[in-house]
Amino acid sequence: MNVTYIHHSCFLVETDRFYYLFDYEKGSLPEMDAAKPILVLSSHGHGDHYCPEIFSLLADAGMRNIRAILSDDIEVPADVDTLQVAGQQQYDLGFQQKLTTFRSTDLGVAFLIEDQNALIYHAGDLNDWVWEEESDTYNEQMTIDYRRQIDLLAERLNRREIDVAFVVLDPRQEKDYDRGLCYFLETVSAKQVYPMHYWGKPEIIDTFLKDHPEYHLKIHPME
């Protein structure tokens, strides 16, 4: 399995059989095998997670087998094979592929892809969005809602280990920046975790590893 970081929350994952492009906003795409199918997954329609021009970019790059998997808040693009998905659902994608979605604590969904024996998780904007300026009631409910979804993810995995996970680590949360990622790592088994959504400040990953050195082998360094 090959992973390429594109920008912000966008990653390209290549397995033996497929490409998976998550939450494309902008950025240069690497050269790809035009004969290999690509699934374009967008967790929700916020501008930093979805760009409708991605389909023409892929077509211009010669990709011939393109399928979109889009949160149901996103308008279906014309002339693209599209599956719209909602939160907390399971979908059989064919070709020994399964998709489980989880409800975001912001908008849209998070994705768990099962591709034969490979497991890929992308959080979208599912995170423990605790903010100092919000009320205690809001923040407490946020944590409850987030942990419920991560607990459902762990239940779905049934002790299996995710091969690669893309999880929010947002420096704008200041002292609470690590809440979501820490609970994920405490609850879910994952071989490799790529922090994302850090708004051009990859140094937050170094901060996290200084604060939590026990996760050094799991957290993938970025830019």
Model description:
By secondary structure, this protein is of the alpha/beta class. 21% of the residues lie in helices and 31% in strands. The protein has 4 helices and 12 strands, in the order E-E-E-E-H-E-E-E-E-E-E-H-E-H-E-H. The protein has helices at 54-60, 136-157, 179-187, 203-211; strands spanning 2-7, 10-14, 19-22, 38-42, 66-71, 81-85, 90-94, 97-103, 109-115, 118-122, 162-168, 190-196. A 6-stranded mixed β-sheet has the order 1-2-3-4-5-6, covered by helices on one side. Strands 7-8-9-10-11-12 form a 6-stranded mixed β-sheet, covered by helices on one side. Strand 4, helix 1 (54-60) and strand 5 form a beta-alpha-beta unit. It is globular. It starts with a strand and ends in a 12-residue tail after the last helix. The relative contact order is 0.12. The mean pLDDT is 96.
